Automatic annotation (TrEMBL):
Domain of life: Bacteria
Domain SRP54-type proteins GTP-binding residues, every copy: 265-278
Gene: ffh
Residues reported in the UniProt entry to bind GTP: 104-111, 186-190, 244-247
Subunit record text: Part of the signal recognition particle protein translocation system, which is composed of SRP and FtsY.
Annotated localization: Cytoplasm
Protein name from the UniProt record: Signal recognition particle protein
Function: Involved in targeting and insertion of nascent membrane proteins into the cytoplasmic membrane. Binds to the hydrophobic signal sequence of the ribosome-nascent chain (RNC) as it emerges from the ribosomes. The SRP-RNC complex is then targeted to the cytoplasmic membrane where it interacts with the SRP receptor FtsY.
Domain text: Composed of three domains: the N-terminal N domain, which is responsible for interactions with the ribosome, the central G domain, which binds GTP, and the C-terminal M domain, which binds the RNA and the signal sequence of the RNC.
E.C. number: 3.6.5.4
Catalysed conversion reaction: GTP + H2O = GDP + phosphate + H(+)
Database matches in CDD domains: SRP_G
Species the sequence originates in: Nitrospina watsonii
Length: 437
């Protein structure tokens, strides 16, 4: 797998200061193979490798990373950069109904995805109307009606109307009248891109002005999926992508290619034929899938742990200069949570034992402390003394806690800082968080 190959490439390099051109190129060849295996399209691979190359050459190797680790980290970060680093939910309109239009080739999974989304939203108490606009295949309309019956979700009755544009227009009007939360239009697809299909989809879009056009792509189509996405993007315009059949052995290359050619976020993935098999798209998970499953991720975890070591040294310097602030404190808590066993670890931060005296240590307590710090502005985190009464109320509201809890945290943090100061002033020996944590 990729991580092993990169390790091999870099074995001989250990200890050198910078990533050199020839070393990077050797690694890029390995990465290229991994991306081809994942079915990423060639132009995308080419762009991507050029980017990674530029980022890598001459980069200082972090003290604690081997060049192999460093390369994997760059590749990982670049892939995540390409895919976006967070989930992209559907944007609902302030003025219901939100109109969602599904487009894509026949068999890509449009109708199934309509059912999955509707099921999800129904569970959230949203009132949804489904619209069968695939008028060419009676079976398609029947499929949606069956879904609607099973899910107990209303399906628009088009009567004798055969024009998809008219059906969609009427359905949206009805949804407005009925104060529906969302309408999902299930449009027709063909085996292949053709002008008549694109023209129809475009006319529906112009007439109905949907809030979101979701392109549904079959991930098993690999590279081809990107070309189809591009056609829909150019001819119709899309706002997001649903990648279906990710339960198969597709390695996720389609995600990268589609995002790259359309620039649109992948919002959901379909992971099975059943109606609960829909998940928000997490770029980081796909990245590890593309690079060769978990191996690379565990390698990166290792690299990041090493990276954390450097951060700890940085932390030590901050403590010495008395510049340790609430943000650092929160980062430390996050680190601990990643590592598990809270109780044990906390005893090791100076002052923390006191801070948590008599407190039942459970993960919840930490989540609350984190929430409080997250609700502060960066400025407040750096200057905890400035947090006055009204700010405390805002922070408490924002974090779903109360002013008492905010007060307690601030007081304890102040005590902790005092303790740190004492320790680093020499009386209690040299303060070295690296050895403590
Ligand atoms: P449409 O023509 O675009 O409306 O496609 P359909 O929704 O009718 O789906 C075509 C086929 O793909 C059906 O057999 C679905 O059960 C199947 N399908 C859809 N989504 C998924 C998925 O995420 N995983 C798997 N394994 N099958 C899927
Ligand atoms: Mg269909």
């Amino acid at each position: 797998n990729l991580s092993e190959r990169l390790e091999a490439v870099y074995k001989k390099l250990k200890g050198r200061g910078k990533l050199k051109e020839s070393d990077v190129d050797e690694a890029l060849r390995e990465i290229r193979v991994a991306l081809i295996e994942a079915d990423v399209s060639l132009p995308v691979i080419k762009d991507f490798l050029a980017q990674v190359r530029e980022k890598s050459i001459g980069q200082e190797i972090l003290k604690s990373l081997t060049p192999g680790h460093q390369m994997v980290k760059i590749v990982n970060d670049e892939l995540e950069g390409l895919l976006g680093d967070e989930v992209s939910p559907i944007r609902f309109s302030d003025q219901p109904p939100t109109v969602i239009m599904m487009v894509g080739l026949q068999g890509s999974g449009k109708t199934t995805t309509v059912g999955k989304l509707a099921r999800l939203w129904k569970k959230e108490g949203k009132n949804v109307l489904l619209v069968p606009a695939d008028v060419y295949r009676p079976a398609a309309i029947e499929q949606l009606n069956t879904l609607g019956r099973d899910l107990e979700i209303d399906v628009f009755d088009a009567g004798d109307e055969k024009d998809p544009v008219a059906i969609c227009t009427q359905a949206v009007q009805q949804a407005k009248k009925e104060l529906r939360y969302a309408v999902i239009l299930d449009t027709a697809g063909r085996q292949q891109i053709d002008e008549a299909l694109m023209d129809e989809v475009r006319r529906i879009k112009e007439k109905v002005e949907p809030h979101e056009v979701l392109f549904v792509a079959d991930s098993m189509m690999g590279q081809q999926a990107a070309d189809i996405a591009k056609s829909f993007q150019d001819a119709v315009g899309i706002d997001g992508v649903v990648l279906t059949k990710m339960d198969g052995d597709a390695r996720g290359g389609a995600a990268l290619s589609i995002k790259n050619v359309t620039g649109k976020p992948i919002k959901y993935i379909g992971t099975g034929e059943k109606l609960d098999a829909l998940e928000p798209f997490h770029p980081d998970r796909i990245v590890s899938r593309i690079l060769g499953m978990g191996d690379v991720m565990s390698l990166i975890d290792k690299a990041e742990q090493a990276y954390d070591l450097e951060q700890r040294e940085e932390l030590g310097r901050k403590v010495k200069k008395n510049a340790f602030d609430l943000e650092d404190f929160r980062d430390q808590l996050l680190q601990f949570r990643k590592m598990g066993s809270m109780q044990e670890l906390l005893g090791m931060i100076p002052g923390a034992g006191k801070m948590l005296k008599g407190v039942q240590i459970d993960d919840n307590a930490f989540v609350r402390v984190e929430a409080i710090i997250n609700s502060m502005t960066p400025h407040e985190r750096a200057h905890h003394n400035l947090i006055n009464g009204s700010r405390k109320r805002r922070i408490a509201n924002g974090s779903g806690t109360n002013v008492n809890e905010v007060n307690k945290l601030l007081k304890q943090f102040a005590q902790m800082k005092k303790m740190m100061k004492k320790m680093s002033s020499g009386k209690m020996g040299r303060f070295n968080p690296g050895s403590m944590l």
